[in-house]
Hints:
alpha+beta; elongated; 12 strands; single chain
Amino acid sequence: MSARGRAGGRAAARGRAPSFPCVRCGAPLRRVATHGRREIRCPRCRFLIFDYPRACAGTVVLKGDQVLMLRRAHAPKRGWLDIPGGFMEANETIERAARRELREETGLALGRVSQLGIYWDRYYLRGFGYFPTLNFYFVGWWRKGTPRAADDAASAEWIPLAKLGTPGQRLAWKHMRDVFRDVRRMRKSSPR
């Protein structure tokens, strides 16, 4: 790791925001709150980047009373439980992104899916710090195939919905408890 990378990691450990180079002039940048919004402004060339959320899409796959969960293979949150999903790519619809991530991480494809909801969270990127995420979820029913962990997943497992979101469980992201709450509500109002 470079000296700059170690310095950014130490700064984050001490509670200071990590710095990273400006894409225009290379000067070290930091996030700042200005008039109630977060932005990144270069002190040298004044280049401005608003700290917009990054869009993510995922799919909650149900099989009876179980949910397909992944164990994360990489940082952040390596080894923690996660829902199949990830960052959207340019020119990709939300549903297409969710289906692509499901296929890349498990090898599964689903028929019809339903929108579940949108959830705020944040993601940590070493050398950059936390940035906001806007997470779109769909719900679909497993029909056939064996999920095989690939891409960002170390393993894939079916876990009873009743056990997900309980205290002490190592869920990768804070918003996942709300996702499971909403899946339970959806199941009560329209059981399959």
